[in-house]
Amino acid sequence: MTQTATLEPPVPESAISHRQRRFGKSQGRTAAWLVGPAVVLLVLFILIPIALTFSLAFTNAKLVSPQPGTFVGFENFSRMFHDPVFWKSMRNTVLFAVFVVPLQAGFALVLALLINAKVRGVNFFRTVYFLPVVTSIVVVSMLWQFMYQPDGLINSVLRAVSGGAIQGTDWLGNPTTALGAILLMSIWQGVGFHMVIWLSGLQTIPGDLYEASSLDGASTWQDFRYVTWPSLRQTRTFILVTITIQAFALFAQIQVMTQGGPLDSTSTVVFQAVRAGFAQQQTGYASAISLIFFVLVLSVSFVQRYLTSDKDVKK
Amino acid sequence: MSDTIAHVAQTSPTEHGGSGQPSRGRRIGGLIVRILLVFVFGLPLVFLLVSSLKPDTQIFGDLTSVKAFLPVGDISLDNYSAVFDRVPFWRMLMNSIVISALTVTLGLIVNSMCAFALARLKFRGRAIILGVIIATLIVPFETLALPLLWWVNKLPYYDGSVGWLDTYEVQIIPFIANAFSIYLFYQYFDSIPKELDEAAIVDGAGWFTIYRKIIMPLSGPAIATVAILTFLPAWNQYLWPLMAIQTEELRPVQVGLDYFKQLNTAWGPLMAYASLITIPVLALFIAFQRSFINSIASSGVKG
Predict the structure, then answer these.
(1) Domain positions in chain A
(2) Residues B5-28: tens digit of each pLDDT
(3) ipTM given for this complex
(4) What is the CATH number of the domain that holds B203?
(5) Residues 13..42 of A with a Cβ closer than 8 Å to B: which?
(6) What pTM was estimated for this model as a whole?
(7) Searching chain B, which residue's CA lies closest to the CA of residue A287?
(8) Contacts of B78 (CB under 8 A, 6+ apart)
(9) Per the omega criterion (within 30 degrees of 0), is the bond before A37 cis?
């Protein structure tokens, strides 16, 4: 194939371009074999499902049914918008995101700054803070469900620490505390991940920037405010977007711990989609919910693109 | 920022203290905070492991004192034998091991091949494929899960029947090709000098040889990163097998824990089950700590 080109005698210009085209063609065939498996799988299991999210949302397709779904227009959407549980789930999902994003990102940054110091045992601290990340969310949810019980670990600790003054509550059984309890647990589980990402951002900041600022007599806070924080813009955007999307996708904790209760106070968009599309087998309706979720995610990524593109002059 | 693989674990930390060495008081304060955080993150896991050795009455009895975190009192492996008596634990463990191992291995092959072509070959459609892959990076699996469930139920199965639900394949094949793995490999391969290919071609090597004998052996860090980043979600898969698998014999461990919990199980055996599926991953993490941290770090470096 390609090596025959080296054996040919010198040739005029036109023949060279011909030869290059042949070379390109053989690359094309090799490339087809190399990308083929991945492309086929991505089409089958990502692109077609994306297309299906959009098309099934306008049908009454059922998960297991001999009849194909028929076009029903916006029926699924009008049913969804008239369902108070959907609105409650939407509210919970957005509320969860609004709190979890700044809290988790901020706490992760604090951890990263604590770890990014020249002190002994940094490795040990980093390892321990990261342990919940490698623990599965199902295990974490079960464990914290025990801890959150009325007579569980959290209330016992609260009682012991306060000398009996704080009695605690049934954290997951109380509609006012359930979502907050799940939020706290989710941060505990996920914060180590974003700590590591902040850390990798911190370590790309050139040391001479800090030397310069210390020559100027900057305080630690000024260092952070004028050197560290501006240098972390890309890391920051990435972290905010990934936590937002994870927050929108909140599901496992709900399924294991509360099943959406009490009084739908922890129901989320994905939880409703699974209930509709799996438990009730209404794929059409579930696709409509998924579509809303998809739009949420897309709008976040557009905001990200907007935030990173125009200001990103250097790089 | 477009460096391919970050090396957070290797880089020695640098003190960005501004005005020289931080004061003694501040150093001690920092240490106290770090140690308190060790308790915050470590104690719940210690509690899990310790409670798996105790009967329920003692788990609750110990809650009021520090004994909750110590393996003292009526310690036994009874909870563990209760797990093996009540659910086919070894079978589910094997399922999870097989599913994770195949997803990771096949994923490494398929995604690296694709990335190799995208990074080093010229062909028509290259830009489009790369663009689509980057565009799908942002799409979380949860948006597709329900349409996908409907879709795999319509796909022809190899034995002539229709529908993949309740099979091993449905837990593996949809997760082999992974846009993020392709992207990580692509970035890494793109940073390897192209002159290597030209030299190899002069020596008569074909593209497949270049991929297998030159590029892959140079890509250890990328392979480790992709392996870890695909192993964790494969092992922790929950939403998908919850919906796609009905038969207990095909169930992976995470869904198994959820079902075990629904059998109104006492807490002790639940803690034992949870410990059994957590300890191997924690051991892997502690053994390959550097690689784990570096893979997570590089997952953030998205250009």
Answers:
(1) 4-56, 80-309
(2) 556 665 555 544 444 566 778 788
(3) 0.89
(4) 1.10.3720.10
(5) 24, 27-28, 30-32, 34-35, 37-42
(6) 0.87
(7) B147
(8) B55, B268
(9) no
